[in-house]
Specification:
Helix content: under 10%
Order of helices and strands: EEEEEHHHEEE
Largest sheet: 8 strands, antiparallel
Number of helices: 3
């Protein structure tokens, strides 16, 4: 099918002689060329700076985003639920619409596989039942203090952080070729980076 991408965004900003600020919000939604494939991300960003005194400036930036996805295709040549491998191996004489209309046997309620020997998954069985996705919450930003006591000397300290939490989930329905009993996978990932740069600049 035809994939679509929508990226509405909103931002406002302001400032004067002693400071400035900017706030933005972005909502990204995507549907892929494979049925059930979805991706969404909401992002908020804030950036502001101010001159506190003669030679002293501060600036901060903070960003938050939440991404969610579902129905992402598996990337593996050894997994019989990998859509790319299934499609590439289909003969040109196979009508993809016949596969779409014949996914489950109405009598046995089992998958109608590509061959009588059950050696290949129907791609529509995979996209309807074997879904994988994730959600990611990420925060990153920094704060900078800059002080110029002399015309030729600038002292600055920049501290920043970037951390995220990710939840992954993948489901394979029983009756899938290569995993007849089905399986279930989840994972929780966390990562954080903190960095600080203290600089003396002579010009």
């Amino acid at each position: 099918k035809t994939g679509h991408t929508y990226i509405p965004a909103l931002a406002f900003q302001g400032g004067g002689e002693s400071g400035d600020y900017r706030f933005s919000y972005t909502n990204n939604k995507e549907t892929g060329i494979i049925p059930s494939e979805e991706f969404a991300r909401n992002s908020i960003s804030f950036n502001a700076g101010r001159n506190m005194a003669k030679g002293l400036d501060v600036r901060t930036s903070i960003n938050y985003s939440r991404s969610t996805s579902n129905g992402r295709p598996l990337q593996s040549t050894n997994n019989q639920s990998a859509i790319q491998s299934i499609i590439v191996g289909l003969p040109r004489t196979v009508d993809i619409h016949d596969l779409e209309n014949n996914v489950v046997d109405p009598v046995t309620k089992q998958q109608i596989t590509l061959t009588p020997g059950k050696s290949g998954n129907n791609p529509y069985w995979v996209v309807q039942n074997n879904l994988s996705g994730n959600s990611v919450d990420r925060v990153f930003g920094n704060g900078i203090i800059t002080y110029s006591p002399l015309k030729w000397l600038t002292i600055s300290d920049n501290i920043g952080t970037d951390f995220y939490y990710e939840y992954r989930k993948a489901v394979t329905r029983p009756g899938t070729v290569g995993a007849l009993t089905g399986n279930f996978f989840t994972a929780n990932l966390y990562n954080q980076i903190i960095n600080n740069d203290f600089l003396l600049t002579v010009t």
